[in-house]
Every structure is written in C-alpha cells, then in structure tokens.
C-alpha cells in the first residue's frame, strides 16, 4: 500500500479553467477553483492561468484552505529559440515555485508542438525530432536541471500528446539521452493511454526516474473518434477524451500497486482537462478523490 506519510494528493485547476482554451471555464473564478479543491479533499494544486503570481498573495489564498502548490507547467523552447530565452524564463518560474515550497518543476518542450493548434491532427501532425534535435533537447534539459538543483529542486519531464516526446519509445529515448541526476520524469497515465501505450509498462521501466505523477483517465470511444476524424488535441479535449480516475477505462489499481512497490514519495495529481460546462469540476473532483480513497486508503 502507498504510505500516507509519503504521498500528497493534489488536483490540477485545468478542470475548472483551461489554459490552452480560455473559453472553457472562463466563468469559473480562482477562488471557486481552490475552494472546491479543498472541499473535495485535496491538499494541493498545480498552478493555473488565474492564479496570482505573487507568492505572498497566493499563500494568503491557499493557507486558509489547507492547500499547497505541487508544481507548475513550464514551456521550454530549447529547439526553436535561443537557449538563454528559455533559461531566463525558467529561472523566473523556478524562483516562483521555490517560494511556494514546490520541489519539482514540470517541463515540456514546446518547440514544434502542435498541442495548442486547433486544426492540426494530434496523431498525424505531431513532430518527430532529428538526432541532432534529440541531442539539443537533452543538453538544454541538463542546463535546466542544473538550474533547478541550485534551489534543491528537480525538473520532471512531461511527455504529452502533440509533442515530440509523446510515445513510450520517445520517452525511452529521452531517458537514455539524459542524466538521471539532472532530468526526472513526470508519469502521466492519460497521455500514455491516449497515445496507445501501456502506462504500467512505462512506469515499471522508468520507475527510478519518476518524481511526479499525473492521474488521468481516458474515454476510449472518444480517442478512437479523434483518430478516425483526425481531430486536434484541443478538439479531443473538447470532445471529452480525458476524464478523472474512476470515470474512464483505466484500472489504476496496478498503477497504485507499482507506485507502492517502488516506494514512490511525492505528489499524486489528478488532472483531467474537460469542458466544465459538460463535466462539473467539483463533482468530478469528488469522484476522483473517492476513487483514490477506495483503492489506496489515502
């Protein structure tokens, strides 16, 4: 069983208000979001686009609700922009998260990414890196990892639909090219299932690199529609490809068992971007929290 002393449970605000599609949940306030997170029984949050970026101000909102910041997404452009641009932006991001007490920084390479493009098919249009690009990505991530460790933090790479690190093969390649002391892995069940890979196999293979976990489920009929109709990632989100644990097709019990076996310590973050007009964020947060409690005791 997962140890309560090792695990903290968080939920991402993307269910309330979507960073890539601001029209999804535009009416939901920051205060509503964090209040419902706490009411549903979560102890932490990642950072969304409506969150104050002043650590002092943000702490004043979070503390009465018993919430902490688990991490926040950082878009790297190591393949398409000068390294220093990404470094400068990363340092600002790092310092904000450090001030909030976070230990990990979520990083995803967005150079050539199609995840934010409305009309590019997510399966057919995803980028593929050349060998030179893979080496540049690894080198850039090493630099970000060094900067993170200046604050005793770690970067966790987020494999993601519509990017050059989407599949199990691409995760394997990135892990092989990067120094384990500088680059760790964010394990996301939903993105792996969406890509057609076995989440449990990836977790088992890279257990030693995993320092952050996103718990996300999928609706297979919608994923098949995305393939058949050549939909974009954003169209997939609006169609309902993702949902929370306990509402989709994945059995998370083997995942929880593997995390326990590898003595995972850190955040488990429920993340499922949906249209809040169709999937009430609070109701789905409660559903996810109940599912985790039933199958882990947490």
TrEMBL record:
The enzyme's first-digit EC class, named in words, is lyase
Q: Where are the transmembrane segments?
A: none
Cofactor(s) this protein cannot do without: glutathione; Co(2+); Mn(2+)
Q: Which family does it belong to?
A: Belongs to the IolE/MocC family.
**PANTHER family this protein is in?**
HYDROXYPYRUVATE ISOMERASE, INOSOSE DEHYDRATASE
- Does the record's keyword annotation contain Lyase? yes
What is one Gene Ontology biological process annotated in the Swiss-Prot or TrEMBL record? inositol catabolic process
Which pathway does the UniProt entry assign to this protein?
A: Polyol metabolism; myo-inositol degradation into acetyl-CoA; acetyl-CoA from myo-inositol: step 2/7
- Name the reaction it catalyses: scyllo-inosose = 3D-3,5/4-trihydroxycyclohexane-1,2-dione + H2O
Q: Which GO terms describe its molecular function?
A: manganese ion binding; myo-inosose-2 dehydratase activity
Q: What is this protein called?
A: Inosose dehydratase
Instruction: Enumerate the UniProt keywords alphabetically.
Output: Cobalt, Lyase, Manganese
Residue intervals of the Xylose isomerase-like TIM barrel domain = 38-294
Q: Which InterPro entries match?
A: IolE, IolE/MocC, IolE/XylAMocC-like, Xyl_isomerase-like_sf, Xyl_isomerase-like_TIM-brl
User: Lineage in the entry?
Assistant: Bacteria, Bacillati, Bacillota, Bacilli, Bacillales
- Gene symbol here is iolE
**UniProt-listed Enzyme Commission number(s):** 4.2.1.44
Highest taxon of source: Bacteria
């Amino acid at each position: 069983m997962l140890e309560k002393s090792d695990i903290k449970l968080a939920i991402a605000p993307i269910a309330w208000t979507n960073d890539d599609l601001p029209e999804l949940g535009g009416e939901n306030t920051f205060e509503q979001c964090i209040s419902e997170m706490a009411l549903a029984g979560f102890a932490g949050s990642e950072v969304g686009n409506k969150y104050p970026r002043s650590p002092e101000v943000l702490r004043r909102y979070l503390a009465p609700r018993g919430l902490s910041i688990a991490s926040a997404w950082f878009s790297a452009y190591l393949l398409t922009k000068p390294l220093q641009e990404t470094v400068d932006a990363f340092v600002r991001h790092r310092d904000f998260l450090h001030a909030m007490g976070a230990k990990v920084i979520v990083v995803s390479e967005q150079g050539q990414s199609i995840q934010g493009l409305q009309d590019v098919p997510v399966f057919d249009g995803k980028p593929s890196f050349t060998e030179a690009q893979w080496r540049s990505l690894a080198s850039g991530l090493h630099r970000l990892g060094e900067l993170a460790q200046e604050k005793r933090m770690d970067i966790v790479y987020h494999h993601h639909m519509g990017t050059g690190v989407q599949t199990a093969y691409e995760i394997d390649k990135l892990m092989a090219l990067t120094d384990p002391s500088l680059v760790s892995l964010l394990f996301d069940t939903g993105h792996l299932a969406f890509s057609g890979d076995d989440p449990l196999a990836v977790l088992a293979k890279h257990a030693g690199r995993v320092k952050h976990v996103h718990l996300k489920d999928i609706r297979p009929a919608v994923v098949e529609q995305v393939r058949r109709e050549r939909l974009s990632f954003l169209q997939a989100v609006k169609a309902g490809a993702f949902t929370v644990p306990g509402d989709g097709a994945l059995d998370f019990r083997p995942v929880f068992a593997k995390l326990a076996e590898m003595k995972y310590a850190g955040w488990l973050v429920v993340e499922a971007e949906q249209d809040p007009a169709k999937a009430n964020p609070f109701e789905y947060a409660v559903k996810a929290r109940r599912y985790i409690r039933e199958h882990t005791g947490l």
